[in-house]
Design brief:
Layout: E1 31-38, H1 45-55, E2 59-70, E3 75-80, H2 83-96, E4 99-104, H3 110-123, E5 127-130, H4 145-158, E6 161-162, H5 166-173, H6 183-191, E7 197-200, E8 210-213, E9 218-221, E10 236-237, H7 239-252, H8 257-273, E11 276-277, E12 284-285, H9 288-291
Parallel strand pairs: 1-2, 1-4, 4-5, 5-6, 6-7, 10-12
Antiparallel strand pairs: 2-3, 7-8, 8-9, 11-12
Helix pairs in contact: 1-7, 2-3, 3-4, 5-6, 7-8
Length: 299
């Protein structure tokens, strides 16, 4: 059963028309969780995920797996968080709130994956989206060799959707993606590792197309805006995190997988087009407030 077939729908609480959101009770709130690294720039990772969840009127929570020292352009250092604290935080969060979806990001090492495996298999029945972060855009390794092995052997088995970019997909599948024609076979290989579905994000290559494989059928998702012809071709920090957090949000709200993947792509392209420059750095940052206007009325 893939994510689209889970039929996770938006709750229908009996809330009087016009009631302020602040006055709604716990039962009417939709909780989602980011299990990811803490990026001090808030351009990616846990802090960025929570901002993205908020665009969809979801209550975002977060458990840090690592603390990064970085600029918009590069990661300088990564310190993994305490395994015990991660485990206790995850257990208490799932005990306290009905979490509808979890998105993973930077995990650092196998310890974080072991925590997820042991806790989620008994305490979680929602949607799991895995953004398999292996290295930074500048090439710095962000997960140990043992962590990468645990990701392939444990984490991907639990995932409803994984969202690797082209480089990550090739590394996980064990075969480089040199052209658009390589995407379907790579996605199938990734599904053989256990996830119910795969979205390989194009990272600006192959005409800006993504490729979705739901376990049985594959679909190319074309560019949704005029991003390729835009003058804004500079790198933008955190686009992978934004995409996967948007995808999880849309799935939690009841969208089918293909519709959610297409809409998340559209919003990510808009996030790139409305990003802002940080003085002294090449990479731009996402302005979440600018993206809000593009969230559809139906979400």
């Amino acid at each position: 059963m893939n994510s689209a077939q889970r039929n996770v729908t938006r709750p229908s609480p009996d809330v009087p028309a016009g009631m302020p959101k602040s006055e709604r009770g716990d039962a009417e709130r939709r909780y989602v969780l980011s299990f990811a690294g803490l990026d001090n720039t808030a351009g990616a990772g846990l802090l960025a995920d929570i901002k993205t969840f908020g665009l969809f009127d979801l209550y975002g929570m977060g458990i840090p797996t690592a603390i990064t020292v970085q600029t918009p352009d590069s990661v300088v250092d990564v310190s993994c968080c305490s395994t015990d604290v991660m485990r206790r935080s995850l257990e208490m969060t799932l005990e306290s709130c009905k979490v509808l979806g979890i998105k993973t990001g930077l995990l650092g090492d196998e310890a974080a994956i072991d925590v997820l495996e042991s806790v989620l298999k008994t305490r979680f029945n929602g949607i799991l989206v895995v953004d398999p972060i292996l290295h930074s855009s500048a090439g710095k390794q962000l997960i140990t060799a043992q962590g990468r092995l645990a990701m392939s052997e444990k984490l991907l088995l639990m995932a409803d959707v994984i969202t690797p970019n082209v480089d990550e997909a090739g590394l996980l599948a064990g075969s480089a993606i040199d052209s658009r024609a390589d995407l379907p076979e790579c996605a199938k290989r990734l599904c053989e590792l256990g996830p119910r579905s795969v979205v390989i994000t194009g990272s600006g290559r192959f005409g800006g197309e993504d490729f979705l494989f739901d376990g049985s059928e594959g679909h190319f998702i074309p560019e949704q805006t005029k991003l390729a012809s835009s003058s804004r071709k500079r790198p933008v920090h955190g686009t992978g995190c934004f995409y996967s957090a948007s995808l999880l949000s849309l799935l939690v709200l009841g969208k089918g997988l293909r519709e959610a993947a297409t809409e998340a792509k559209f919003l990510t392209e808009k996030a790139i087009l409305t990003s802002f420059k940080v003085k002294g750095y090449k990479s731009r940052l996402i302005d979440h407030s600018a993206v809000r206007q593009f969230i559809s009325e139906g979400v």
